[in-house]
Write a structure and sequence with these properties.
This protein is an alpha/beta fold. It folds into 2 domains: about 130 residues, Ribonuclease Inhibitor (Leucine-rich repeat, LRR (right-handed beta-alpha superhelix), Alpha-Beta Horseshoe), CATH 3.80.10; about 160 residues, Rossmann fold. β9 and β10 form a beta hairpin. The chain starts with 9 loop residues before the first strand and ends with a helix.
Length: about 350
């Protein structure tokens, strides 16, 4: 039946469990619209370039990983649907297709979109693990993205700033840990009142010749604050869950599930504060099986153990350096505003 229709300008081969395009399609020299959605196609053959009259390609819900070199000669292509594939890079060949007006490429694996891509009239990219342009820009719409790239033309700087959130039960020592990270010679005040709400403190470090800034968020641990925490738990951050080994009152399931829900798989370090040098065993391997974002477990006495505190500090710096948004190019004027 397909072969009897092969000279048609429009062909639909949807939901046929195809893993590759049948070669007899090459006979469709006048093809203008091709719908191959809902198959299992991972690559398009080189001869696909022969469809020079093609105007609409619908390849949604396949397993395409790349379109490089396939679209180069499709000079009449106007509409491209690629939702729900495995594409990780926008092919530069799209830039040369002057008739292309619509590209829909949500639910793929693309982290970086080039500036020229947003010169296409209609684009849809939601559901990708996007780093550049930043999510905050993407969420404001395509016009904001275009303005973002326009401002980048006047100069850029790399962002080396991130958020460290210290959370846990009240009285665990979160404020003391924050102060110790900023200044290891800080003398802990045992009568320091519990944090009410949130306190924020900047912390600077240098790694591989690059200056970093961490904004440390110290959350009040009293139960009355737990509901408001969720407003401030963000993605692309580093989390530090502090427990008090002396009190043994940390609700690990509550905290780990809360972080999992709001953090977007941000890394988590668990720190056991061995007040009065009291140790406590926890099933860290079991926790890691359930919560994949747990990076490390540290046990130390915040007040007295400087060497372990330095190890924790190095791990924090390592995790911050590896956050996906670190190094993102932002318009210079944005960096200036952030500093002010």
């Amino acid at each position: 039946m397909l072969k009897r229709q092969i000279n048609n300008e429009s062909i639909d081969i949807t939901h046929c469990s195809l893993k590759e395009l049948p070669e007899y399609l090459r006979e469709a020299k006048n093809l203008k619209r091709l719908n191959i959605s809902g198959n299992q196609i991972s690559t398009l053959p080189d001869w696909f370039q022969e469809f020079t009259k093609l105007e609409v390609l619908d390849a949604r819900d396949n397993k395409l990983t790349s379109l490089c070199k396939v679209l180069d000669r499709l000079i009449n292509l106007r509409t491209l649907y690629l939702r729900n594939n495995d594409i990780s890079e926008i092919p530069i060949s799209l830039q040369e297709l002057k008739q292309l007006k619509t590209v829909s490429i949500p639910q793929n694996r693309i982290e970086k979109f080039p500036s020229w891509f947003f010169k296409i009239q209609n684009v849809s990219i939601d559901g990708n693990p996007t780093i550049d342009p930043p999510l905050e820009v993407l969420n404001r719409g395509v016009d904001s993205v275009r303005n973002y790239f326009l401002e980048r033309e006047n100069g850029t700087e790399n962002l080396h700033e991130a958020k460290l959130l210290i959370i846990g039960e009240g009285g665990a020592g979160k404020t003391s840990l924050m102060n110790k990270l900023v200044n290891e010679d800080y003398n802990i005040n045992p009568f320091l009142p519990s944090t009410k709400g949130i306190e924020i403190q900047p912390y600077y470090f240098k790694r591989n010749g690059i200056d970093f800034r961490i904004n440390i968020w110290d959350f009040g641990g009293q139960e009355i604050y737990h509901a408001t925490h969720q407003i401030f738990l963000t993605k692309r951050s580093l989390y530090l869950l502090l427990t008090d080994n002396r009190a043994e009152d940390t609700d690990f399931n509550y905290w780990l599930q809360t972080i999992e829900l709001f953090s977007g798989n941000s890394p988590l370090i668990i720190v056991q504060n061995e007040k009065q040098d009291r140790k406590r065993d926890i099933n860290i391997e079991g926790m890691k099986e359930r919560f994949k974002n747990i990076a490390k477990l540290y046990s130390l006495n915040i007040a007295t153990n400087k060497s372990s505190l330095r190890n924790l500090d190095r791990e924090i710096q390592k995790q911050i350096s590896n956050l996906p948004h670190i190094g993102t190019e932002l318009p210079t004027i944005w960096i200036s505003i952030r500093k002010k």
